[in-house]
């Protein structure tokens, strides 16, 4: 029988509920338990696919092509839980199923209501999110307790738990203990009120995780326990971490969260304490790097850290693999021009151009790619970043000055990035994105094949446009080779320039498959090349010669 953990948040948003949930998942896995993870989001969009990254941050894509909340990225980075379309439900998605049933007449003329129809659909979604064979299923409820939007979800989890024995379910509530500088003290009142709100709905949390800046005193713990009706040992401090978010599970284990969960849910873990040895070692590398390198990221949504969350995390993983700290110079592509690119990117030992949609900043990205290609600085392009590399190559190497992507210029005489025929048909029907994991065959002898140390890989996609095969032969003859191909469709998945220290563009999103303990091979090879470049610059005034990155695989 699968046990269930429900994680809610109170007081304010952005408390790090996703990270806390992912950390609890990791802790349970490290005790030998099999877990599932799921997020329920109270907004009305059916999925975050259509939301602006400025609004919502990155759209995280699963293997099966679901466009999901970025917290699912944390789940995959911390745990081995398999995430699917059933791992993220929004209010919109729940209502969509209920309304479709109503239109079909499935409710046999009855009045359709929030209770029981919407709450039943939520309970079904929770069950559907459980992977077969899971010992524990974790469900995070988005939003903040007290919001109107989250009420149906909170009501549904109350019912869900009522229908099961008490030892099969547990509520974990994450709150904030704000620190008032003026009086030099932390306050428990918001926590009391947020737990009060939960209890009003009929939910008594058994574990409270309190985000704090300062250590929580025994006196505060006693007070929170008394007013919130939670046992004192189950009031857990989650203090701000000093160096990296990967410290969170370590600190939660120090506070004994695993014992509380095992006792309450009567779990039978393989080990009494989680084995976090390798995780601790990894965190030590982050805290004490041996080297440092600065890499430019030229993109569109630079003000908001969440917009390229997985990219930044993957860079950190690649740093760990190279025992280095990667400093990221985040540059707004709109500010880059041919005239200032030298100055904007000066001192950077690598350039990464991430994915994106639309025209804004495109010329700045292309100018940056040109800089990296001509100055022989390691370049790594992701999705739109790869497309920019192809356009740049077409314009400045192949002599096609008006080359562009059909996305940005419908009438370009040289659509080197274009919609494929079947996509054009699909577009008329409203759906065009290539979403989710596709196989990619690597061409032996290329940098991509060396990095992956494999012949066939699976990578996740989220885009409409593709490399136009009409230009493949011409570009290959000039030095831009297709080093990864989807064999079923003959689509180009990876391009690279052989005669360059590192110049690789990928049509997919490798950032969705990197973990701190298993960095993505291409990110790892890119950062290795950037370190090599930095060393070359330090040791001589002349730029380094083409250095072949050592073949590096996943750990
Ligand atoms: N806008 C491009 C396309 O649709 C790239 C998308 C992306 O970078 N995710 O093909």
Features:
2 domains; nine-stranded mixed sheet; 555 residues; binds glutamine; seven-stranded parallel sheet; alpha/beta; 19 helices; Rossmann fold; 36% helix; disordered C terminus
Characterise the protein shown here.
By secondary structure, this protein is of the alpha/beta class. The chain folds into two domains: 3-282, Rossmann fold (3-Layer(aba) Sandwich); 289-536, 3-Layer(aba) Sandwich (Rossmann fold). It has 19 helices and 23 strands. It has a nine-stranded mixed beta sheet, with helices on both faces. Helix 1 (17-29) runs parallel beside helix 3 and helix 4 crosses helix 5. It is globular, with a radius of gyration of 25 Å. The two termini are 33 Å apart. The relative contact order is 0.10. Residues 546-555 have low confidence and may be disordered. Glutamine binds at residues 355-357, 383-384, 407, 462-465.
Compact description:
With 555 residues, the protein is of the alpha/beta class. The structure holds glutamine.
Task: Give me the secondary-structure category.
Answer: alpha/beta
CATH-assigned homologous superfamily of the largest domain = P-loop containing nucleotide triphosphate hydrolases
Helix content bin? 25-40%
Overall tally of structural domains: 2
CATH architecture of the largest domain: 3-Layer(aba) Sandwich
Lateral arrangement of strands in the main beta sheet: 13-12-14-15-23-22-21-18-19
Mean pLDDT: 93
User: Could you please say which CATH topology of the largest domain applies here?
Assistant: Rossmann fold
Uncertain segments:
546-555
Tally of strands: 23
End-to-end C-alpha gap: 33 Å
Largest sheet: 9 strands, mixed
The backbone outline, from C-alpha atoms, is globular
Beta strand %: 15-25%
CATH class of the largest domain: Alpha Beta
What Rg do the Cα atoms give? 25 Å
Q: Which molecules are bound in this entry?
A: glutamine
Count of helical segments? 19
């Amino acid at each position: 029988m699968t046990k269930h953990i429900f994680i809610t948040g109170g007081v304010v948003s952005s408390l790090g509920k996703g990270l806390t949930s992912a950390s609890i998942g990791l802790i349970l896995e490290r005790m030998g338990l099999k877990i599932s993870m799921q997020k329920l989001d109270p907004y009305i969009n059916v999925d975050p696919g259509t939301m602006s990254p400025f609004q919502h941050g990155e759209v995280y894509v699963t293997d099966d092509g679901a466009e999901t909340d970025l917290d699912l990225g944390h789940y995959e980075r911390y745990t081995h839980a398999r995430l699917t379309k059933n791992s993220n439900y929004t209010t919109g998605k729940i209502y969509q199923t209920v309304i479709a049933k109503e239109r079909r007449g499935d409710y046999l003329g009855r009045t359709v209501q929030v209770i029981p129809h919407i709450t039943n659909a939520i309970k079904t979604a929770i069950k559907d999110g459980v992977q077969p064979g899971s010992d524990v299923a974790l469900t995070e409820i988005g939003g903040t307790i007290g919001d109107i939007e989250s009420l149906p979800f909170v009501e549904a989890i109350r019912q869900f738990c009522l229908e099961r024995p008490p030892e099969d379910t547990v509520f974990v509530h994450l709150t904030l203990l704000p620190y008032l500088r003026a009086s030099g003290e932390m306050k428990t009142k918001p926590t009391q009120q947020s737990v009060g709100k939960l209890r009003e709905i009929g939910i008594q949390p058994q574990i409270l995780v309190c985000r704090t800046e300062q250590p929580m005193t025994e006196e505060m713990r006693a007070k929170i326990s008394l007013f919130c009706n939670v046992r004192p040992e189950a009031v857990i401090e989650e203090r701000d971490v000093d160096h990296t978010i990967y410290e969170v599970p370590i600190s939660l284990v120090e506070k004994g969260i695993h014992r509380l969960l095992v006792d309450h849910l009567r779990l039978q873990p393989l080990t009494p304490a989680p084995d976090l040895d390798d995780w601790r070692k990894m965190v030590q590398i982050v805290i004490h790097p041996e080297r440092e390198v600065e890499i430019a990221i030229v993109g569109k949504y630079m003000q908001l850290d969440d917009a390229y969350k997985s990219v930044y995390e993957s860079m950190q993983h690649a740093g760990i693999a190279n025992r280095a700290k990667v400093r990221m110079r985040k540059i707004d592509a709109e500010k880059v021009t041919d005239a200032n690119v030298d100055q904007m990117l000066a001192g950077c030992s690598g350039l990464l151009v991430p994915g994106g949609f639309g025209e804004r900043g495109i010329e700045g990205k292309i100018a940056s790619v040109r800089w990296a290609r001509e100055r022989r600085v390691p370049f790594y392009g992701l999705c739109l970043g790869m497309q920019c590399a192809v356009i740049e190559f077409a314009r400045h190497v192949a002599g096609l000055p008006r080359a562009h992507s059909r996305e940005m210029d419908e009438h370009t005489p040289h659509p080197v990035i274009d919609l494929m025929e079947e996509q054009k048909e699909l577009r008329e029907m409203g759906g065009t994105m290539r979403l989710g994991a596709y196989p990619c065959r690597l061409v032996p002898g290329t940098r991509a094949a060396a990095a992956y140390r494999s012949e066939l890989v699976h990578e996740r996609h989220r885009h409409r446009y593709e490399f136009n095969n009409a230009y493949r032969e011409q570009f290959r003859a000039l030095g831009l080779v297709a080093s990864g191909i989807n064999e079923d469709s003959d689509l180009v998945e990876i391009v690279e320039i052989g005669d360059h220290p590192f110049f690789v563009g990928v049509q997919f999103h490798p950032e969705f498959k990197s973990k701190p303990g298993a960095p993505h091979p291409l990110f790892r090879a890119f950062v290795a090349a950037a370190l090599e470049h930095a060393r070359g610059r330090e040791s001589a005034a002349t730029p380094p010669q083409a250095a072949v990155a050592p073949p590096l695989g996943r750990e």
